[in-house]
Amino acid sequence: FTVEELVDLPGPGLNIAYAHMVKSLLHPDDIPDAEKYRVHILNNMLGRINNGLYHFKTAKKVLQGLGYSANELEALDSTSAWDYGRCAFIARSCAYTRFLEEDEAWMYMKKAADNASCVYDSWRDFLAGYVAGRALGYGNDSTDIFAILRYLLQSAKSPYNEVPFKSAHP
Fold this sequence. Notes:
Layout: H1 3-8, H2 13-17, H3 19-26, H4 34-65, H5 70-75, H6 80-96, H7 102-119, H8 123-138, H9 146-154, H10 159-162
């Protein structure tokens, strides 16, 4: 990867969260001891990537335990479900604490749902993307939520089995 590719890889969040690191990578002459700092930053980023990949592999094993086929796991090409789920959670939390009005929170949750329905075809696909994104972004392999995942996929009373995934989209 080039520095520019690493900066663009996770989206604009990296530019905000690691602004000082990005600056030192792109403009090393502006930073004292820039080369030493650059090596430290790149090692840190590679460590995070390796950690994320480890958790991603173990999350795939969790999904296999839930009945996902090798083909389904191979087709998994997006982890944005984690972002959409977090967006809905934050909107709901903000409404609960009155930082947002209820209708505003629903607007954000609907936008997250609209975006998710453009990326995923079913709750099953969404759940796989959510688990993979959680593993990469949160550093967790999802073994701690296995029972919840199994309920969502297998229980007749699960919202995943009662609410059509693309209900907002004719």
